[in-house]
């Protein structure tokens, strides 16, 4: 008998979601199959039967692979696609990994290899070429093994009464979303380790999402300290073995950044989203989605718990707790010393107060951290002849100047040599530089404190993050200056002074979440110091010392500020009190984009307001001239299907780019 199956493929050539193929065998839904596509082969998933299809030229499934997705995962793919408006084939593309080789995931080494002592390790930790690993496996030096189990109990008195209470209350929750809230140093990680341990021992799989790749390294070390076993890491070099393990349903733990969300676990027992407020969970290139929200959908479809972890939860989460959609478990800070927080009014980059504190801290042989969310040397390059700002060639954005004589665009990330001649007026040597970046601060500090080691950390220097963190831990750095990367969790026992160079940065720009992000960043950065037995000082500099947020942070009383911020959002019906979808249309021709958007007719949908079209704030981005629609709707409706219908009717030419951003986080 010939069966006909609907197959979801990672590409789509028409508006259809599925393509029909035949097979002589009966195949279960969710099975991975290989099918011919034109002259090539593609891997797809069986979504159901299609016996009604009487088309003559149906082709046959060439191979049925040994793994399949369960019903919950299939259901989650469908729901995620409906919510984010990302076509299902693009979701499948994110789920699939290359299956060219079948490396083992976990290995046991019998003698020392690459500084690793004999023991069991995930393959990526060997940091060796696969051919070499294979050769050593043939020699018997390395053998394949399973993800080890770990049943080392924690000593009873390891946890404070507060932490024990938190563990008990979260363990009582068998499904739904719970926020584990606690300031830096309150022991959140130890608490969720305890919870995942129990679920791991029940033979389940656990996913830990973290915002930054640099954080995975530290978390993996902590995990090993606790369990004497290394977790898997979702990493470019070893996706395939982790993927195979996930589909197999065998117990274990994987840590990864947002793309780890798409691993098709068949036996998931718990999801943890660390630093849930982080903006890096939002994918801003390609298909746009928020990994945290899709993870919550995932937990729902599996009927398992999901733990959001944060010291400074997003307002979306705060509102969900107030509305009783999420539960909340809170930890107190267990550090013995209270922080000494000072708000200093100044127009200089370094007030006398800050300078004095830096001096005293260095004299005590303790460490200083300075935070300024401005990369490079100067943030503003200006031509004194024609009065124009030097702009990026691909964007309508001003360029940043770097000390190595390069310019950098913070939108499209292009780096270019600083031009000698002004492109507008052809004048030579007419540049003037304004605005302070961290490189300039480093230069000036080196003059003031010539005998001290002063280092930089920003997303420009990700390749030295681990090295810098180690040096900081070993006291080889006296002053560390950095951008928001400093906010990510790290423990330096000798760090006792944190200076926020410009506390009011960004306070007046147009983004609705700007103050919220300031609150999260400053709170996180200030939490870096005074975490051990030495008291810590935080100095927040600002031209406006009456700023309600800075006042609230200085008094360590942010609840009132949160209430205020929430009521502002409510009064303007902004998220989290409403939802938004942003539609961006762009092309290389400004005239073409404008003509197209002007011809789009807006539909009337009950409860939905469609604003625009309007040129985007950054009109030219990556050489595209862009216009956008902003759709706002109330929280209790899901107009996605109707919006999709409207968008499908646009009929855009091939050279016009369409971006759909559900729950947008950026508005440039
Ligand atoms: Zn000029
Ligand atoms: Zn640019």
Automatic annotation (TrEMBL):
Top-rank EC class of the record's enzyme: isomerase
Binding site for Zn(2+) 2: 392, 395, 409, 412
Domain Helicase C-terminal, first and last residues per copy: 353-574
Keywords, sorted A to Z: ATP-binding, DNA replication, DNA-binding, Helicase, Hydrolase, Isomerase, Metal-binding, Nucleotide-binding, Primosome, Zinc
Enzyme Commission number(s) from the entry: 5.6.2.4
Residues that coordinate or bind Zn(2+) 1: 383, 386, 422, 425
PROSITE patterns reported in the protein's UniProt record: HELICASE_ATP_BIND_1, HELICASE_CTER
A Pfam family matched in the record: DEAD
GO cellular component, one term: primosome complex
GO molecular function annotation: 3'-5' DNA helicase activity; ATP binding; ATP hydrolysis activity; DNA binding; zinc ion binding
Gene Ontology terms describing biological process: DNA recombination; DNA replication initiation; DNA replication, synthesis of primer; double-strand break repair
Stretches that traverse the bilayer: none
Quaternary structure note: Component of the replication restart primosome.
Name recorded for this polypeptide: Replication restart protein PriA
Species per Swiss-Prot/TrEMBL record: Candidatus Cytomitobacter indipagum
């Amino acid at each position: 008998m010939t069966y006909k199956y609907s197959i979801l493929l990672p590409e789509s050539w028409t508006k259809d979601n599925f393509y029909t193929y035949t097979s002589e065998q009966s195949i279960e839904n969710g099975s991975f199959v290989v099918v011919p596509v034109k002259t090539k082969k593609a891997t797809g998933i069986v979504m159901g039967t299609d016996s009604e299809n009487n088309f003559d030229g149906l082709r046959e499934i060439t191979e049925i692979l040994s793994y399949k997705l369960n019903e919950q995962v299939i259901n989650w793919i469908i729901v995620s696609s409906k919510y984010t408006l990302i076509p299902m084939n693009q979701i499948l593309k994110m789920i699939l990994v290359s299956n060219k080789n079948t490396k083992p995931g976990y290995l046991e080494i019998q003698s020392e290899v690459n500084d690793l002592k004999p023991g069991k390790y995930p393959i990526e930790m060997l940091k060796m070429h696969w051919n070499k690993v294979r050769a050593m496996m043939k020699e018997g030096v390395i053998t394949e093994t399973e993800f080890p189990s770990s049943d080392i109990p924690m000593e009873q008195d390891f946890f404070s009464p507060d932490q024990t209470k938190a563990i008990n209350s979260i363990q009582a929750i068998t499904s739904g979303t719970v926020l584990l809230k606690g300031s830096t140093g309150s022991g959140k990680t130890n608490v969720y380790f305890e919870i995942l341990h129990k679920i791991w021992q029940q033979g389940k799989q656990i996913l830990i999402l973290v915002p930054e790749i640099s954080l995975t390294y530290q978390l993996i070390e902590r995990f090993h300290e606790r369990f004497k076993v290394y977790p898997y890491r979702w990493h470019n070099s070893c996706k395939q073995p982790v993927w195979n393990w996930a589909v197999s349903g065998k117990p274990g733990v994987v840590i990864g950044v947002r793309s780890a969300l798409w691993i098709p676990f068949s036996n998931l027992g718990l999801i943890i989203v660390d630093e849930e407020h982080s903006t890096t969970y939002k994918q801003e290139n390609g298909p746009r989605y928020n990994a945290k929200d899709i993870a919550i959908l995932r937990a729902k479809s599996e009927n398992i718990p999901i733990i959001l972890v944060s010291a400074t939860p997003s307002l979306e989460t705060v509102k969900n707790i107030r509305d009783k959609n999420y539960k909340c478990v809170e930890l107190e800070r267990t550090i013995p010393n209270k922080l000494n927080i000072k708000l200093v009014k100044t127009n200089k980059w370094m007030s006398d107060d800050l300078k004095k504190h830096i001096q005293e801290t260095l004299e005590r042989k303790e460490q200083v951290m300075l935070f300024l969310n401005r990369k490079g040397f100067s943030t503003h390059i200006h031509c004194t002849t024609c009065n124009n700002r030097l702009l990026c060639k691909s964007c309508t954005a001003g360029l940043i100047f770097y000390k190595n004589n390069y310019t950098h665009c913070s939108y499209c990330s292009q780096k270019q040599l600083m031009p000698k001649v002004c492109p507008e007026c052809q004048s030579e040597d007419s540049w003037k530089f304004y605005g302070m970046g961290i490189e300039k601060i480093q230069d000036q500090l080196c003059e003031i404190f010539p005998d001290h080691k002063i280092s930089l950390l920003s997303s420009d220097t990700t390749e030295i993050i681990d090295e810098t963190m180690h040096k900081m831990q070993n006291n080889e750095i006296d002053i560390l200056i950095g951008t928001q990367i400093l906010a990510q969790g790290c423990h330096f026992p000798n760090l006792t002074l944190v200076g926020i160079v410009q506390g009011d940065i960004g306070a007046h720009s147009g983004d609705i979440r700007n103050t919220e992000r300031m609150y999260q960043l400053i709170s996180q950065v200030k939490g870096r110091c005074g975490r051990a037995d030495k008291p810590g000082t935080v100095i927040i500099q600002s031209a406006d010392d009456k700023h309600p947020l800075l006042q609230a942070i200085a008094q360590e009383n942010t609840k009132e500020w949160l209430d205020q911020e929430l009521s502002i959002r409510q009064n303007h019906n902004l998220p989290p009190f409403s939802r938004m979808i942003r539609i961006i249309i762009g092309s290389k021709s400004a005239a073409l984009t404008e003509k197209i958007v002007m011809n789009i007719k807006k539909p009337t949908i009950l409860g939905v307001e469609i604003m625009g079209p309007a040129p985007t704030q950054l009109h030219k981005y990556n050489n595209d001239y862009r216009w956008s629609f902003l759709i706002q709707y109330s929280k209790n409706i899901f107009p996605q299907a109707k919006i999709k219908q409207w968008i499908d009717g646009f009929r855009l030419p091939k050279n016009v780019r369409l971006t759909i951003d559900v729950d947008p986080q950026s508005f440039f």
